[in-house]
Amino acid sequence: MDLSNLMDGFATALTPQHLLFAAIGVVLGTAVGVLPGIGPAMAVALLLPVTYALDPTGAFIMFAGIYFGGMFGGSTTSILLNTPGESAAVVVAIEGNKMAKNGRGAQALAAAAVGHFFGGLVGLTLLVLLAPVIAGYAVNIGAPDYFAFMVLAFAATSTVLGSSRIRGFASLLIGLTIGLIGLDQMSGQARLTFGTLQLVDGIDVVLVAVGLFAVGETLWVAAHLRHTQEKPIPVGRPWMSRQDLRRAWKPWLRGPLIGFPFGAIPVGGAEVPTFLSYTVEKQLSRRNGGWGSKGAIEGVAGPEATSLSSAAGTMVTMLTLGLPTTSVAAVMLAAFQQYGIQPGPLLFQRESNLVWALIASMFVGLVLLLVINLPMAPVWAKLLQVPRPYLYAGILFFASVGAYAVGGQPVDLLVLFIIGAIGFMMRRFGLPVLPAIIGVILGPAAELQMRRALQISDGDLTGLVNSPLAIAVYVITAVLLSYPLWSRFVRRSPKPTERADRVDA
After folding, report:
1. Cβ contact 50:62 at 8 Å
2. pLDDT tens digits, residue range 439-497?
3. Is a pLDDT exceeding 80 seen at residue 414?
4. Does residue 202 fall inside a structural domain?
5. In CA terms, which of 51, 106, 321, 374 is 20 to 30 Å from 187?
């Protein structure tokens, strides 16, 4: 760990101006993330245009605050209204919403906030320790290796999420197709522009993220939930008793040990580790009672600490390899690219001051998250009392303004609503959104790396597998894709005793 660079990052992040940016980011991120149906990724995508007027350092410091605020806001919605903003927040709703219905919503929110703090603190510490080391090794990674990693990211996000693999790969295909729009990076040939000059530069990732998340969700709610009324649940004063603290401190410490390793490897988001944390805590603390009836605080503390530590682990992959494996990381990668910065092995060398200021601001954002949101939990609960038609009308307006601010072209609004309609149809047929976002982000880069590798090998396909690292990654991808089929075959095959009984019969 380069302690001097980290201290320089804190010196930048702790200036009054940057502290104000971080605080504004935390408040805005929480305020948007706490709205029903909006997860951290949508909150970050909606607020991304807000940072465009700032310099890169100030923008990413505010972005770090928005990131952590959106994460906590998604948990608040999940606990109070049983409306998870993303798949990783589903586990928190299992016990957290039961606690809220039994008048313990304040304790659940407090456990979530402190869990975020502990999970983020451990995860960011490991990020500081491991990211420069991984970046040092990643400098020697070539085009075939990068393409192999991107194929692994495609396979992982398409197979882990969604109700079926076919739907996951269909979503990925939609994203890859959108990513093809514009000029070919190597030949300069226009592709899928339909003769429209405004599409020559491609479709901005922010438009895709806001369209699929915000506009698609708004259209879905307008079509299906406009006649439903959910009664908001009062939160009250956030506090935890000594018994709550005794039950929660161990899950707070165990969560990061489960979450960070899953986040650091490019094979998906926080869904698997949060479910694993929930299972572990349920098995270890079943004697405490409350599971499945009144709600167990361990079922909130453990998964919340796991979720944020997994997000910190995801930052390792995103910063050192340029591979986003979650929706939030994909939007953050888009923010880097908006400023002409490409995350990867050389990021810590070329943009050292920016990266360490970003990491330091994440530590600052964790503290601000805890200080600001514990006493303001009742305020966020009042936001949930806004009538749903006004709420989603505001979201649609905000999304439109943000999309227009990206390029300042009316065609951007048309593209936004077309992509929003695609997002609506994806929800209609059960297609997960994340593979499409990953396809838009990584599709052009994967194509570029593949063509570079083939050029080096004079068109020989073995140029894609000419390194031990690439072969190892492809083996992992093959195992990931074939494991469900293999496990299904094992379950269906008769046991030796059954075969013997059949022979005797």
Report:
1. yes
2. 887 788 788 888 888 888 887 888 888 888 888 888 888 887 787 677 666 666 555 55
3. yes
4. yes
5. 321
d(CA 303, CA 450): 38
Q: Do 420 and 215 touch, CB atoms closer than 8 A? A: yes
The total number of structural domains in the chain stands at: 1
**126 domain-assigned:** yes
Structure tokens at 133: 């080391």
Local confidence band at 213 (pLDDT 50, 70, 90 cut-offs): confident
Burial of 153 (0-12, 13-18, 19+ CB in 10 A): buried
Q: How many Å apart are CA 213 and CA 43, to the nearest integer?
A: 9
Model confidence over 332-359: pLDDT tens digits? 787 787 777 878 777 877 888 888 888 8
Distance (Å, whole) CA 11 – CA 6: 9
What letter represents residue 221's amino acid?
A: V
Q: Is residue 494 part of a domain?
A: no
Q: State yes or no: pLDDT of 4 exceeds 70.
A: yes
In whole angstroms, how far apart are CA 266 and each of 148, 190, 323, 466?
A: 11, 32, 7, 21
Does 392 map to a domain?
yes
The helix/strand/coil state of 182 is strand
Q: What are phi and psi of 459, to 5 degrees?
A: 85, 0
Cα separation, 85 vs 83, in Å, equals 6
Q: pTM for this structure? A: 0.64
Q: At CA 329, angle to CA 408 and CA 161, rounded to 5?
A: 110
In three state form, how does the secondary structure of 132-158 look?
HHHHHHHCCCCHHHHHHHHHHHHHHHH
DSSP structural state of residue 191? E
Burial-class residue 379 by CB neighbours within 10 Å (0-12, 13-18, 19+).
middle
State the greatest distance between any 2 C-alpha atoms of the chain, in Å, as a whole number: 83
Q: Which of 148, 16, 79, 40 is nearest to 453 (CA)?
A: 148
Q: Which domain holds residue 162?
A: 3-466
Task: Give me Rg for the CA atoms of the chain.
Answer: 23
CB burial string 113-133: b at 16+ within 10 A, e below: bbbbbbbbbbbbbbbbebbbe
Q: What is the pLDDT of residues 289-339, one digit of tens each?
A: 556 667 778 888 888 888 888 888 888 878 877 777 677 777 778 778 777
Nearest to 454 by CA among 472, 466, 470: 466
The tokens 């048309």 sit on which residue?
414
List the structure tokens of 210: 């806001």
The secondary structure element, H or E, covering residue 340 is none
Q: Which two tokens stand for residue 160?
A: 């882990």
The reported pLDDT for the residue numbered 202 is: 79
> What residue has token string 């994203």?
175
Whole-angstrom Cα distance, residue 472 to residue 477?
A: 9
- Which residue do the tokens 């303001």 mark? 376
